[in-house]
Amino acid sequence: MQDAKYFSHSWKLLTRDKGWVKPILVLAIAMFVPIVGPLAVLGYALEWARLSAWGVDAAPKQRGVKIGGCLVAGWRAFVVILVWMLLWSVATSVVTAIIAALRIRLLSSLLSLAITTANLLLSLVVMVAALRAAIYQKIGAGLSFARIYEMVSHDAAGLFKNVAIPLVTMLIVGGICTVSGLLVMSLAMPDILRLVYEVEYLSATSGSDPSDLLAIVGSILRTVMPASVLIGYVSLVFSVAGNLLLANSIGLWMRQFNVGAWGSPSDPLPVTPAPLPPVSSVPTPAPQSQPQPHSAAEPVTPAPAPAQPRTDPAPAVAPQPRERSTSPDGETVVPLTPHRAATDELGQGTDKE
């Protein structure tokens, strides 16, 4: 894979349409909904990344998003991520126990640093697994460790470049929370000091009225709660934007593996390295000789292409024989792929204001 700027390409796609910030603001609000909200946001990000993996440049959809489809995609990704993290937790626990038994302080410090670094890199590998499950629409595809290792080992340098996205996101969110938290504490400090004084006085004597404590607590809550909600929402806006950029950057990285030529989840990968095309204001349609992927923008119905031999370059690894579908009159038509391309959860193209 040539040196591709995945982040800049993903940022151009994210901000290409007018009103691009509206989906981010809505998704940040959805994050306040327990369980369902985070799953839907994760599914939305993966559906957009899946389109980029197919080789189609499209901005995130702003209207008509099928929430049910996003929830299903998010739940599928959650199961994949959970399995990966459980296996990683078991592995790190075993290694930590062995190092602890040796009682060598230097090894323990080095192990802690190594695990922290590995956690960041593993988060990218897990996102690759989740996106692969989204492409196949099967949980098992995200647990195909051999195929995922094959992808990561082919271009680990390109994949791990994306580690800067979660790092920068954490720095931004951490800075917002720290500065805003100190500001809120300074505003509430007089009431906090008064509360401490009333508690000490009440414990020393029995003449204090407990209602004074309730009044002070209410004053603190009226100051802290609205500010905390606002700080949390602003932090979620940046977190959602970072997650969208990360997922789509990995989708752009996965584009080099010729997703349209994939067979079953256990088939070897047909790797066809190619540079990223420039981002334009006009959406790029998917190849007519392949099934259309799910899109992150409004649907476009392409004209049927005439039957002709495939002109795609031969994959580096010969694909395995695939099943073939038949038309109503019994004539064999096109090979089946792991994608249900006839459905449309997010569509193809861009929204028009």
From TrEMBL:
Residues 291-300 have a biased composition (Low complexity). Keywords: Membrane, Transmembrane, Transmembrane helix. The keyword Kinase does not apply. Residues 270-290 have a biased composition (Pro residues). Signal peptide: none annotated. Residues 270-353 are annotated as: Disordered. The chain crosses the membrane at residues 20-46, 67-100, 106-131, 163-188, 224-246. InterPro entries: DUF4013. This is DUF4013 domain-containing protein. It comes from Parolsenella catena.
